[in-house]
Amino acid sequence: MPRVEAELHRLAARWLADEGHTSEAAEQAAQAGDGTGTAGVVAVPSVPSVPPAVVEPLSDREREVLRQAAQLQSNADIAAELHISVNTVKSHLKSVHRKLCVNRRRDAVRPARQLMLV
């Protein structure tokens, strides 16, 4: 059984190196397999943060509503600022949530900042 485990660690180290992950993670995998590292412990490589995809582009008005929401303004304040009704603000935010595949206002702000929409 130890030989199988060592072979798995060797293959994991090779895969990590081939995938361009940190040499530290590959080295830890190799050491774990040859007995010089901590047995059975392999570092999980960090995955670069990739901005989420937008299902459909945001309209100019949706972007403006999202900008105001990102500044922590209430729906009433956004409506007054943009000279639209509160229900229209809610409608725009609902559309933004759908297009960004999120369910909450704060969850919409993070990807919008990553995608440089606000």
From TrEMBL:
Keyword set includes DNA damage: no
All copies of domain HTH luxR-type, residue ranges: 51-116
Stored Pfam families: GerE
Compositionally biased intervals (Low complexity): 25-40
Coiled coil stretches, renumbered: none
PROSITE patterns in alphabetical order: HTH_LUXR_2 (PS50043)
Keywords, comma-separated and alphabetical: DNA-binding, Transcription, Transcription regulation
Keyword field contains S-adenosyl-L-methionine: no
Leader peptide range in chain numbering: none
Disordered as annotated region, ranges: 19-40
Annotated PANTHER family: DNA-BINDING TRANSCRIPTIONAL ACTIVATOR DEVR_DOSR
Protein name: Helix-turn-helix transcriptional regulator
Classification of source organism: Bacteria, Bacillati, Actinomycetota, Actinomycetes, Kitasatosporales
